[in-house]
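Fill-in record for Thiamine transporter.
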Amino acid sequence: MKKNSLSTLIEGALMVGIATTLSFVKIFQAPYGGSVTLGSMVPILLYSMRNGASKGIVAGASYGLLQLIIEPYIVHPVQVILDYPLAFGLLGLAGLFNKKVWTGITVGILGRFFSHFLSGVIFFGSYAPEGMNAFVYSALYNGAYLLPELAISLLAVRFVFYRFIRKDEEQNYLS
């Protein structure tokens, strides 16, 4: 059954709202932005896998703009683009893997990591401890909160959302 555009838009708005709400439940807050939350990316990732990458990118970018309004950390206009609409928009890449949930979640979060990583190398390399390469610093800093977010997202989908998937379809979604 084909969904109409209004219901897809409403679903996207709800997922952005749920993601924003979950982003307030912080397990860890990094000093220069970034945090481990209670699975705040899961609604965007699932929306992307249900509705496709293009709609997921729009929903993710919208979520990123809300994050910019709620908790801005701004050092440069290009950094704002890399760390907010682009980084969160790349979560929509999960929509390329609608039948492969684990792969979709991983690719979406890796997309976000890549955007934050670039921002870190370009704009936050000076924060690196003396003698540490900006690439290593950015990878460690962003990995320190996105790796736990990946684990939380995978666990949340496995134990919370999988119960809604019929057993005969489960094998397709586990890879």
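KEY FINDING: The first helix runs from residue 5 to 22.
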